[in-house]
Design goal:
55% helix; 3 helices; single chain
Length: 107
């Protein structure tokens, strides 16, 4: 009985444009990851925090943190490809982006 390894690249014919194994994510998995990261644990404490801050400061702080989350996500997406936004090399991890933008002595 043969075992099929789905993550194994057979002959390199299906590599991405930078030579790495192809990514298998879809729009649904992207949405699921965003929902669990942004909404996940924050929803559990949302009612308590609004009750402590009140009806004015509670929604104001939620809007403030939404802006911070949006700016952080924009910065991370800008760091994904270095030099050129469409054809530049990919930074596959945070450490790759740190090495590229801040240099080798930064970590």
């Amino acid at each position: 009985m043969a075992v099929h390894h789905s993550l194994e690249v057979v002959d390199g014919c299906c590599d991405d444009d930078d030579g790495s194994p192809p990514r298998t994510g879809t729009a649904w998995t992207c949405a699921a990851h965003i929902i669990t990261a942004v909404i996940g644990s924050g929803v559990l404490s949302l009612a308590w925090s609004v009750a402590q801050l009140g009806w004015v400061a509670g929604p104001a702080s939620m809007i403030c943190f939404a802006v911070v989350t949006y700016v952080s996500a924009s910065l991370l997406s800008d760091c994904y490809r270095s030099q050129d936004a469409e054809k530049g090399p990919r930074n596959r991890s945070y450490m790759d982006a740190v090495r590229f933008y801040l240099g080798i002595l930064s970590y």
